[in-house]
Amino acid sequence: MNIIFYLSAVVAIYCTLRAVFHKHAVHALLYLIVSLLAVAVIFFVLGAPFLAALEVIIYAGAIMVLFVFVVMMLNRGEAAVQQEKAWLQFRTWVWPAVFVLLLFVEWLYLLLYQPPAVAPAGSDQPIMPQQVGEALFTRYLLGVEMAAMLLMAGVMGAYHIGKQKQRSYHRYLEEEELRSTASEKQTQQVI
Amino acid sequence: MITVPVSVQLLLPSVLFLIGLLGVLIRRNVIFMLMAMEIMLNAAGLVFIIGSSLWKQADGQVMVIFILAMAAAEVAVGLALILQVYQMHKTVDVDQLRELKDEQEQG
Known about the structure:
The complex is a heterodimer. Chain A is mostly helical. Chain A has helices at residues 2-21, 25-45, 49-74, 77-87, 90-113, 129-138, 141-162, 171-190. The mean pLDDT of chain A is 85. Chain B is an all-alpha fold. Chains A and B meet through helix 1, helix 2, helix 3, helix 4 and helix 5 of A and helix 1, helix 2 and helix 3 of B.
């Protein structure tokens, strides 16, 4: 089982790096989906089969599909790739990368030289959905209801923000705009 | 179940989190920044799962379910905002979105 963990870890890290550094939005999203699937495998290996399924369904399924839809709706094409190429130059990412690497070295030191406390020995069984559901709907019931409210607020907010708004100018401004477009048309015809 | 040491297990989410952080720092496209934030949230969930498997308790997995719900709500609102901003400004460059900046400081 250990080899599965290491393999999926390598896949996850590689695909996440490619996703972050890729110029093409859709390709980056596909790499991110592969990375999330690898993380789902790791969830499964770590004894969380329920969460592995949820990761595939919600993260790799629903959330990434939302991203793909938005990239599709923006529809920026080849020009966007050129722009990303121009933005993602060496001098743009070298200093953030150095600082992040520094942070990683600190993290490495803390993890390897001051290892986390050893947990009490328990059963070697994976945690099945029954146990998760039991905890979710007894001890964390309030949290579930708060999550429900958050999702409701999210849906309403997304609906209201994403709605195509009618332009609500003042009548005078509207007339002015109409007049200016009309005069533009006239000038175009003259030309 | 696996027998990889806990410090090695925790290395994976830390690497993923730092890659996500790097993505937020170096990208100028809002969509990529939102993607990088998803990577970071996912890494946080992975830490919870590792803790859950270490202590053999279901609580960590419950927390990951909450993180999933939060990420879904956040992405829905964030993407709606991105669409609206793109319609208004015809750009997804965060450096050009400075409507909130004070007028006097721009000179």
